[in-house]
Amino acid sequence: MDFARFDKTVVRDFRTPRAKQIMQRTLEISRDNDAFHVVFDGVESLDQVEFIRSIGGTLAEGTLLSNAMSANEFLMRLETMGTSLPEAAPRQAE
Predict the structure, then answer these.
(1) Relative to the CA of 56, which of 4, 31, 35, 77 has its CA 20 to 30 Å away?
(2) What is the pLDDT of residues 19-52, one digit of tens each?
(3) Own/partner pairs, 20-23, CB within 8 angstroms, 24+ separation
(4) How far is Cα 72 from Cα 56, in angstroms, rounded to an integer?
(5) Where are the domains of the chain?
(6) What is the arrangement of strands in the sheet containing 3-6, beginning at the earlier edge strand?
(7) 87: left (phi over 0), alpha (psi -120 to 50) or beta
(8) What is the pTM of this model?
(9) For residue 39, which of 25, 26, 50 has the smallest C-alpha distance?
(10) How many CB atoms lie under 10 A from the CB of residue 36?
């Protein structure tokens, strides 16, 4: 799976016409070609989330959603919620 990531400086400027145009066009290209997924980094406000949703974005990360954490802390949070990651499938020899 390939990803394109919008840096937090672009997400922060989501209200400017140029930033909106770039983000909307990138999402259109990703949907038309089914070639990559678009991640919006640095999401810090509900306004940003609403904008991302309004243009069809589905992947976001930032302090509004969660602060950065170690892998162990992430696993402990999953455990606290009563869930866990699925076991990885064994690799087959090529």
Answers:
(1) 77
(2) 999 999 999 988 888 778 899 999 999 999 999 9
(3) 20/51, 20/55, 23/52, 23/55, 23/57
(4) 32
(5) 3-80
(6) 3-6, 37-41, 59-61
(7) beta
(8) 0.70
(9) 26
(10) 13
